[in-house]
Amino acid sequence: MIGVVDMEVPATSSGDISSAMEDLTVDSKEVGDGSSQTDTTHEALFYVLPYLGLRELLTLETLSRRLRDLIRGDPLSWQQLLVDAPSNKNFTNVELVKLTSRAQGRLQSLSLVKCLKISEEVVEAVLVANPLVHKLGLAGCTGVSAEAILRMVKLQTDRRSPDFPGLVQLRIQGLYGITTEIYNSLLAMMQPSENLSSASTPQYFNRGETSPPFDEDRAIDIEICPKCGGARLVFDCTRPTCQERRNNPLYQCRGCYLCIARCEECGMCIDTTEEENGETFCLESLCQSCWLQSPKCSECNRAGCSYHVSLSRKFEDGSFICDMCLLNSTGPESDE
Q1: Ranges 183-192, 200-209, 305-314: which has the least confidence
Q2: Contact residues for 102 (Cβ-Cβ < 8 A; gap 6+)
């Protein structure tokens, strides 16, 4: 029996789930018609488990031995595996093999987001053991090379048949060595269907989101930047006037994050040289509209993106002080 993976789970999650699933952890009791209360509940639970995420499944395992055996022995619950923050921090090859083996060769979707301790050899071994995988996400997994991605896609492509769909969606933003040639080879092997393409719908900049999810109709998350020619995430603009010109050959407001600066809040393209752009304490770019609406530091009156504002020191009246001002105010005292 596979051991429970040691992963971080919020303290409230276990309590909430434990309360909701209380009937599942009691001993078997006969009800009026002579049926078993526990068995009936477990039968219903089979329909719920496939919709739970990794953290919820691992939390449920800790509630009782009966639930642990039920979850680990149900391959349908492990056909979709998504590992992202905060579980990805200490996620290793050992955990990957243990969790994917629970699918018993029926794994269909594997998405690892910024799992820095994962090696390409183990990911390839997982694909070999799971021919049904048709969605693969390795965004930010820097231990996987571009050459390994080519091998993985070719492996699934060569298996394509009426019984095996082959690889239809791929998420590889943040991997090193993805050249234009490799990108074109990947796109050619995957052969997007009518419902999937390399860039069928606009993609907008969203801080913290490394790649579009699988429910978006994109075969590959990256594409060729029309400005620099690099294979990266390419963003459209949220500015209405730019959206109207999206299909115009002279359209210049579409490109990767290296070519076009975008507002951290709304994703609108901005000119960083314009004087009307307000200064931010976090050094992130904000358009004029978002700068005016963003809360300001009570000391320097500089705005910040919502992410860095949330990390700043808050006061009872709702105001805050940015890290730079906090450092300047406490510096002399610490020196004494």
Answers
A1: 200-209
A2: 2, 72, 75, 77, 78
- Which residues are within 8 A (CB) of 239 and not within 5 positions of it... i.e. 6 or more apart? 253, 268, 269
Is 154 among the domain residues?
yes
Name the token pair of 295. Answer: 């809360």
Asked if residues 48 and 3 have their Cβ atoms less than 8 Å apart, the reply is no
Residues 73 and 122 in one domain: yes
The total of other beta-carbon atoms located within 10 Å of residue 282's CB is 19
Residue 70's contacts (CB-CB under 8 Å, 6 or more residues apart) are 42, 45
Q: Are residues 60 and 98 in the same domain?
A: yes
Rounded CA separation 108/136 (Å): 9
- Domain coverage including residue 167: 49-191
Assign 193 a pLDDT band (cuts: 50, 70, 90).
low
Q: Where are the alpha helices (DSSP H) in the chain?
A: 11-20, 37-45, 54-61, 65-72, 93-101, 120-129, 146-158, 180-190, 240-244, 288-293, 306-311, 323-335
For residues 288 and 245, membership in a common domain is answered with no
Instruction: For strands 109-112 and 135-137, give the pairing.
Output: parallel
Distance CA 280, CA 3 (A): 48
pLDDT in tens, 285-332: 888 888 899 999 999 999 988 888 888 888 888 889 998 888 887 754
- Write down the mean pLDDT value for the chain: 80
CB atoms within 10 A of CB 71: 21
Q: Cα–Cα distance between 141 and 232 in angstroms, integer?
A: 15
In terms of Cα–Cα distance, which of 62, 123, 69, 63 is closest to 91? 123
